[in-house]
Amino acid sequence: MTQTARHRPTSVQDLKDLSGRELGPTAWHTVDQSRIDGFAELTGDHQWIHVDPARAADSPFGSTIAHGLYSLSRTPAFLEELMAFDGFAHSLNYGYDKVRFIHPLPVDSRIRMRATLTSVEETAPGAVKVVTTLTVEADGIDKPILVAESIGRFTV
């Protein structure tokens, strides 16, 4: 399900104005076995805890769990629900810092994301580096599934 972004910054000042504010949460996204299997196929990571429900049922988790990188790979789409950067001439995912997979994600869980712009640094006139803390949470699980710092570079 695609939603219209809630925030549409078009200038460096717009980004600075969002700094420190929590954005979200996004809509829920269900992570079923077919999505986990598809991710395993795409990445070549067919580790049994992800793709073998019978064997995983006897594991400490009691079921298969999604790859940690599955949750991380969902963050750009989740971020698009929260913010649109179409007002910028260029936007680039520069990378991630401090990625932590805090809690396993059982199959058939629902996840969503919250984001906080933690740093907005003008690197040149009209150019900005934005660090956003991304927190992926699962319905019914007290701890976050994932916390990561995403780094983006934008030019007006």
UniProtKB/TrEMBL annotation:
Gene3D superfamilies found in the cross-reference section: Hotdog Thioesterase
Domain MaoC-like: 20-135
Protein family (similarity comment): Belongs to the enoyl-CoA hydratase/isomerase family.
InterPro entries assigned: HotDog_dom_sf, MaoC-like_dom, NodN-like
CDD domains linked: NodN
Pfam families on file: MaoC_dehydratas
Stated name of the protein: MaoC family dehydratase
